[in-house]
Amino acid sequence: MEPDLDPLLAVLEDGSLDGYLIDDDDSDSDQRYVSGFTAPDAYQTLVTADGGVHLLVSGLEYGRATKEADADSVSRRSAYDYQALVAEHGSYEGTVRTIAAFLADHGIDSVAVPRNFPTGTADGLRERGLEVAVEREGVVEGIRATKTPWEANQISATQSANEAAMAVAERLIATTEIEDGALVRDGEELTSERVKREIEIALLRHGCALDETIVACGPDGADPHNRGSGTLEAGELIVIDIFPRDKGTGYFGDMTRTFVRGEPSEEARQRYDVTREAFDAALEAIEPGVTGAAVHDATCDVIEDAGYETLRSDPSAGTGFIHSTGHGVGLDIHEQPSLSPTGGELEPGHVVTVEPGIYDPQVGGVRIEDLVVVTEDGYENLTEYPIRLEPRAN
Amino acid sequence: MEPDLDPLLAVLEDGSLDGYLIDDDDSDSDQRYVSGFTAPDAYQTLVTADGGVHLLVSGLEYGRATKEADADSVSRRSAYDYQALVAEHGSYEGTVRTIAAFLADHGIDSVAVPRNFPTGTADGLRERGLEVAVEREGVVEGIRATKTPWEANQISATQSANEAAMAVAERLIATTEIEDGALVRDGEELTSERVKREIEIALLRHGCALDETIVACGPDGADPHNRGSGTLEAGELIVIDIFPRDKGTGYFGDMTRTFVRGEPSEEARQRYDVTREAFDAALEAIEPGVTGAAVHDATCDVIEDAGYETLRSDPSAGTGFIHSTGHGVGLDIHEQPSLSPTGGELEPGHVVTVEPGIYDPQVGGVRIEDLVVVTEDGYENLTEYPIRLEPRAN
């Protein structure tokens, strides 16, 4: 992948800075994006004003970095006498001196750094005479919002794994018996925990992992951040929201479906139909040049017209449509752009969720979510999973 | 849990600072430790000079934080007009002003911060007149090295799940047929990938997750950082290293076993026996007051006496015992203290791995690893898993 670093280079030029420095571990998607590399322990990525990408890694990671990274050069810390510097000056000062030597080696006297750059490193470099300026707008996150075709393919692959996991969950629910109002399989009540575990196992089989997943029934589903627990009940709305990450590429997928096993209430069915209509309206609105705010408005229009509250009609609403319409997905599960009141113009290559929902503890929650990529003339849906309230076994 | 924050309070007193501030997300174990809380997005933890712990969280996390955190107070960002500040000043400046208002509310004019504290926040607070000083020694990491009995129990629980996963892996290997030198089950070659997947599934069933696991056969096992891939072979050393994390508590376990299915070479068997002897010598050496360096020396003595190289006998050795004897385990998989040339005095409550190994691409790798807690008069082994070269089905 060749990320377009021009907006970052413009920041360096505007600030008369020699380079952009990242110092972080595998929790930092910006660094992974810029370097094409990730490692569990901290390493450093330098982007020079001519667009060169240079890595500083431990000896342990050196071999892998030279093979895997999208970098013009990879240096190991030992090339700058890291061990001797730590022995003489301690871990903190030794590390700072090693990074300073790496920067000097590349002719760097001044750097821009991201907001989350370690203050310890920043202050240490400043003490050694370097200029360190915080880049405040999140320029790399902005670049990451627009996916290359390769990136869109990775996200699509994770979403395919996600579909396999959703199919496992739907089948589990569809094949239950109903006994005393509870869903029962093989003589045992089917729980949220059991469905989540089977989702996770299905994802593992497809090379994906997740920290959390949502299988929330009845009132649990009315709180968009409740992960759900306990027995699944007949006739109640069950919200299933899965957001796995491919273990190799690091790209996420994201999808939500809502099911009822048994007979839903009339009100639940109506909310499902309105959510589906809002979902279709949001998709209909997506094309380059349209703002995320406009897509969100199109979604709110449908839900408000049907008589439900939104955060647009009442900013303090506790029921109705109480979140935004969507968010960017990539190396982070939540990234730019957003389909929300503050969402800016959509561009080809943006990958966003579309996920309207209607919530009320008295009725439960409904949410329908697909993942789409904005194209030159509209969007392509990266999700191929049926949307239906009644779960089926296949 | 009541962490002993006295060493941190001493840092504040020495520096005449009003408080210690952490600003990070769930990748930061120090913050999780101090606050008893974790959240996917950034939140702030303030420790005041009197030992008070005060959190600043989003509205989304407020309810959970008030229930779960070990904090004297929890504030939500909206209490400091976060949304209005962001609307007026943008995300960066609005966030800094919110944190500054939170600090002012607690009467804080000067803070110590960890090395990895975001430079964006540090510089922003400094522009608003606050003193921000980097705490360079990692005092919270030092406190975390000594586990409370509750923490040792959590680590022990994760290690029990780890044992269940190791049993699945051992059984898989033990129940293979040998065909043309390959391990075969149900007519299919047993691969590293398959064993890893079954390990992960077993851990999921016990509420644990892992990012990586090692099942490395033959030459793969001779590189301590190779995760392993492809068909497992008969008569070859197979290194299995599992380091899961409990999804609820966040505490890690860590264990390694080495197996051979079929007949090992004489040399492989000898290396196994020497590694076992070194493992026993290391355990024998562990007690309060002994340094991690001395434990490492005891391990090296055995391995060198048997005629193999170590990094002590040759710092550039590429074969033999080419890593340290052990590391601390807790909310991070690698933390203080270390059983290595720089390892300081062991204290009751330290939890460390003991994991000698001998490596050579010509022979393969051997590693044996248990996890122990240092007690008043020695150690308690948190691992109850047999150590044997020949895998068994039960």
Automatic annotation (TrEMBL), chains A, B:
The keyword Metal-binding applies. Residues 160-376 form the Peptidase M24 domain. This is Peptidase M24. GO terms for molecular function: hydrolase activity; metal ion binding. It comes from Natronococcus amylolyticus DSM 10524. Signal peptide: none annotated. Residues 8-128 form the Creatinase N-terminal domain. InterPro entries: Creatin/AminoP/Spt16_N, Creatinase/aminopeptidase-like, Creatinase_N, Pept_M24, Peptidase_M24B, Peptidase_M24B_aminopep-P_CS. Belongs to the peptidase M24B family. Keywords: Hydrolase, Metal-binding.
